[in-house]
Amino acid sequence: MYSQGLIGADGRTTESPEFLEAFQRRIDAEEKIEPNDAMPEGYRRTLVRQIGQHAHSEIVGMLPEGNWITRAPSLRRKAALLAKVQDEGGHGLYLYAAAETLGVSRDQMTEELLDGRAKYSSIFNYPTLTWADIGVIGWLVDGAAIMNQIPLCRCSYGPYARAMIRVCKEESFHQRQGYEIVMTLARGTPEQKAMAQDALNRWWWPSIMMFGPHDADSQHSDQSMAWKIKRFSNDELRQKFIDATVPQAEFIGLTIPDPDLTWNEAKGGYDHGPIDWDEFWRVVKGHGPMAKDRIKARRKAWDDGAWVREAALAHAEKRRARKMAAE
Amino acid sequence: MSGEVPLWEVFIRPRNGLSHKHVGSIHAADEVMALQAARDVYTRRGEGNSIWVVPSAAITASDPDQAGENFEPTAEKIYRHPTFYDIPDEVGHM
């Protein structure tokens, strides 16, 4: 997710070489940067973009799963899915708060999401067609997110790193409940197993695209690596994810939909087939099958909630005035 | 809408015997909603048994640019630590 968080980031910066060197020395010494510390404008801008887009991804990510809450097949599954979707909302809030420490307001970030200036992870622009999708999302999408997020716990920016520690603690339940759903289907009737396989077929490629473009095509990586906003390259993380996931699929008798997937003894990892980057960029730019619906749903939530926010503020003001008068 | 919903800093006491610790922030119109939101956002897994919320605007912070003059001098004041003083072994634990 965070690999895509950097899409559109602008790390250019105009400070003096002495200032930049001093800042880099702090980074190299593994010192955390805190909100009021002096920092290059490019560092601040890159983080605002990345943390904001990460937050948007969590919030928009509630939609495809929320779609199945009322249709979960048992109370156990429903309680777990509700808790997971609530967690995603919480993760969005931790992240918005981290971004706000950099001087951007929550309303500003919301506006940028709603008018399309800010992106969110491409993965959420795909539809959740069956219950099996909920399992596969937990297993693969949250699995990929964890792979991305664990190194972010050591990000050089303190508030982001602290938010990610909370997120990572909570995310492990998401992946496990997803895998359990897929495993249950895979061990069920032939129709149920086919459902699980179908969901894996549809979500595999979008999941490995979550790590973002290949290193050679990743424009913003070098500066972000130097500033330790990012610790591993997109391809390194993608490789880790594939190596971890293939045996999990084998264990439940499902097939990864990549005919070129082969074990490479020399590198001690899997080689995978070509990724359809045209599709990736189409989806990132908002042409995914669900892109319009997602933004429409967010805009509706924002607009429909306007009177509630206004009423709450008006009520708070009234109480404050009453208290003042009483004193 | 006019005006942003104010920001609050959230502090949680993990259990009695420990102090409240800063965990993050949330937006809320007033202190009642701030407590409610803090409970939902920061205590979904038994993180604590008490919450403080403080308007972020009420916090006065020291300037990081003055961190040196504020905090470095204490490093030189080693006589503030018990190990600075030599007490003969015969005296025993002190």
Structure description:
The complex is a heterodimer of chains A (327) and B (94). Chain A is mainly alpha-helical and 327 residues long. In chain A, 66% of the residues lie in helices and 2% in strands. Chain A contains 14 helices and two strands, in the order αααααααααααββααα. Chain A has helices at residues 2-5, 17-28, 41-60, 62-66, 75-100, 106-114, 131-152, 158-186, 190-209, 221-226, 234-251, 277-287, 291-304, 306-326, and strands spanning 262-264, 269-271. A two-stranded antiparallel sheet of chain A has the order 1-2. In chain A, a hairpin with a 4-residue loop joins β1 (262-264) and β2 (269-271). In chain A, α7 (131-152) runs parallel beside α9 (190-209). In chain A, 42% of the residues are buried. The model of chain A has no long low-confidence stretch (mean pLDDT 93). With 94 residues, chain B is α+β, with helices and mostly antiparallel strands. Chain B has a domain at 1-59: Roll (Ubiquitin-like (UB roll)), CATH 3.10.20. Chain B contains three helices and three strands; from the N terminus they run ββαβαα. Chain B has a three-stranded antiparallel β-sheet with strand order 2-1-3, covered by helices on one side. In chain B, a hairpin with a 7-residue loop joins β1 and β2. The longest helix of chain B is centred in the middle third of the chain and has 12 residues, at 31-42. Chain B starts with 6 loop residues before the first strand and ends in an 18-residue tail after the last helix. The mean pLDDT of chain B is 92. Chains A and B meet through α5, α8 and α14 of A and β2 and α1 of B.
